[in-house]
């Protein structure tokens, strides 16, 4: 079997890795202090939350733990992009009302058209892969900061690299040159669209690391 490496961010909190599957953190998730002053007037009237990443509910839990504000936010229906993020939100006590099936933001917007109460708060990263959700009021809750890695951590030739976000691919290339023997797997459409056209790449059939790993084993 070819070497399989998941390329993502630290801390890792995804699927339990199979023996022989490696993990390479090219960036670090940093939960930001929340500026709720700008949302003071909006908060009491909020009707729902929207998450496109597991780090959105995790960031709220981290920054607002044991507060009345967090208890209020957890009482609201949450619209979540994908199943894994929805499971993280549920485990933290958020009220998941809708889980997308498309696996990418543009498709998600179509899925929730006509369903979102007004106002719905988009809890998001400092940088996002698409502006499809710019119509919503937003709270910047976390950022993805690149890491500088030693050349010894470069995956060996012929590896299958699983990328968990567009930023993971970008941060990988900031550290290492792309080897033509690599094969890339994208966890979702936004990540797949971030790949350079000349690389050998596949889109996972489902937006989960487990599905990515199963596909990698067949290549």
What would you say this structure looks like, in words?
The protein has helices at 55-64, 68-75, 83-91, 105-111, 166-175, 189-194, 209-218, and strands at residues 4-10, 21-31, 48-51, 77-80, 95-99, 120-125, 138-146, 160-163, 183-186, 201-203. With 219 residues, the protein is of the alpha/beta class. A ten-stranded mixed beta sheet has the order 5-4-3-6-7-2-1-8-9-10, sandwiched between helices.
In short:
With 219 residues, this protein is of the alpha/beta class. The protein has helices at 55-64, 68-75, 83-91, 105-111, 166-175, 189-194, 209-218; strands at residues 4-10, 21-31, 48-51, 77-80, 95-99, 120-125, 138-146, 160-163, 183-186, 201-203.
Q: Determine the fraction of residues in helical runs and give it as a percent range.
A: 25-40%
Strand order of the largest sheet: 5-4-3-6-7-2-1-8-9-10
Low-confidence stretches: none
Count of individual helical segments: 7
| β-sheet strand percentage | 25-35%
**Mean pLDDT score, rounded?**
91
Question: What would you call the shape?
Answer: elongated
Number of strands: 10
- Structural class by secondary-structure content: alpha/beta
Largest sheet: 10 strands, mixed
What Rg do the Cα atoms give?
18 Å
Q: What order do the helices and strands follow? A: EEEHHEHEHEEEHEHEH
Distance between the termini: 8 Å
């Amino acid at each position: 079997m070819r070497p399989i490496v998941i390329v993502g961010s630290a801390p890792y909190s995804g699927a339990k890795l199979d023996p022989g599957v490696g993990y390479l953190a090219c960036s670090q998730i940093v939960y930001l202090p929340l500026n709720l002053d700008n949302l003071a007037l909006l908060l009491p009237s909020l009707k729902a939350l929207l998450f496109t990443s597991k780090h959105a509910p995790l960031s709220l839990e981290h920054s607002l733990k044991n507060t009345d504000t967090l208890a209020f936010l957890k009482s609201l229906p949450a619209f979540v992009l994908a199943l894994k993020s929805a499971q993280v939100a549920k485990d933290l006590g958020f009220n998941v009302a809708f889980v997308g099936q498309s696996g990418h933001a543009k498709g998600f917007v179509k899925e929730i058209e006509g369903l979102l109460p007004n106002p719905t708060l988009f809890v998001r990263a400092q940088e996002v892969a698409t502006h499809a959700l710019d119509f919503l009021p937003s709270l910047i809750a976390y950022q993805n900061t690149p890491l500088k890695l030693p050349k010894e951590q470069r995956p060996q030739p012929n590896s299958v690299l699983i990328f968990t976000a567009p930023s993971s691919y970008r941060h990988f290339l900031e550290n290492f040159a792309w080897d033509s023997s690599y094969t890339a797997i994208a966890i979702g459409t936004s990540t797949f669209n971030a790949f350079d056209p000349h690389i050998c790449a596949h889109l996972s059939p489902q937006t989960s690391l487990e599905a990515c790993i199963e596909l990698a084993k067949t290549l």
